[in-house]
Amino acid sequence: MPVSVPSPDIAVVGGGIVGLWTAYRAARQGLSVLLFEKRRIGAGASGGVMGALMPHQPTGWNEKKQFQLDALVSLEEEIREVEAFSELPAGYRRCGRVMPIRNLEKRRQSAQWVEASRTNWPFPYSWSIVDAMPNPAYLPQGEMPFGANSDNLSARVDPRRLAAALTGALGRLGVEFRQGTGIAAIGRDGTLALESGEKISAGHAVLCAGWESFSLLSGHFVSQIGQGVKGQAALLRPAAPIDPASPILFDSGTYVIVHETGDVAVGSTSENEFGDPHGTDAALEDVIAAARRLCPLLENAQVLERWAGIRPRAAGREPLVGPLPGFANVSIATGGFKIGFGIAHLMAEAVITLAGGERPGFLPGRFLPENRLRA
């Protein structure tokens, strides 16, 4: 019979971006942490190439948009701390974002976003409309017939470098990693049954396994908890260097993100139905072609990598963060979907605070599982 290992204060299930930030937040508070990852750190959607950190439009303000805003504003300092602690770069830059306006009605709507940003965003962040680009070779005038939306809040990070920096920081903090270790089941008493047959009883378990979190909880709740959505993206190397300070381009679902290395990420698809979770196909080739049209500097760029992964989207679209109803000492933090990288550190702070018995004032009530799930 397998022998159970000593009980850590916090057991984190999942070595993606939310799991890493959760382990980091707990370890920084002096808690003992054991992190389980079924494959390897960053093997899922967190190991992609994109890394766009972009806010929603500033109209229709609500708790979720405020949470995302707080996260995007605070993330820079959080990453600098991790970089200093790990001595590894994360490839972060607040580069801004530009989005072409292709019709007059969108131009009118954009003016509303400009006004709303003055009310809802703190100085010095703002939304504006530009009629020309400083570098028209990056985004030609013909691609922005009615100007372009621009904001200086958006940023980007290298997903793999951030995961490596967090992993390095966790190592220095004494966090124990169990890579290649899957969780077979989670008991209502908080016991983790490993695929190896071991059982772990932690002070508190936090489920951060991305879209696989939903299947681990299958059968425990009346309705569907969430689903995985496939995204395909590519990493390109331009024939001539592009300034890494260039803003993110976003147009009709197509992203162009210039990383600190000079390589350019383009994406992404959004597929609710898929066969091969990790395979790429013609849909990605369409995205690459659209990115080349949007940004002519990519015309002769070499495709270094084609990538696909599954992002977690919780039912109701808002993330799930907090204790699971019907369970003892088990919480969940997942479902960030497209904004996951931008809010993961704040999700982590919230879930560890809740595990300690306190309610963080910045967490929207709609994120709490007790308000969404019925056992």
TrEMBL record:
Annotated ranges, domain FAD dependent oxidoreductase: 9-349
GO cellular component: cytoplasm
Superkingdom of origin: Bacteria
Protein name: FAD-binding oxidoreductase
UniProt cross-references to Gene3D superfamilies, sorted A to Z: D-Amino Acid Oxidase, subunit A, domain 2 (3.30.9.10), FAD/NAD(P)-binding domain (3.50.50.60)
GO MF annotations in UniProt: oxidoreductase activity
Pfam family, one: DAO
SUPFAM superfamilies (alphabetical): FAD-linked reductases, C-terminal domain, FAD/NAD(P)-binding domain
Keywords linked to the UniProt accession: Oxidoreductase
Protein species of origin: Oricola thermophila
PANTHER family: GLYCINE OXIDASE (PTHR13847:SF289), SARCOSINE DEHYDROGENASE-RELATED (PTHR13847)
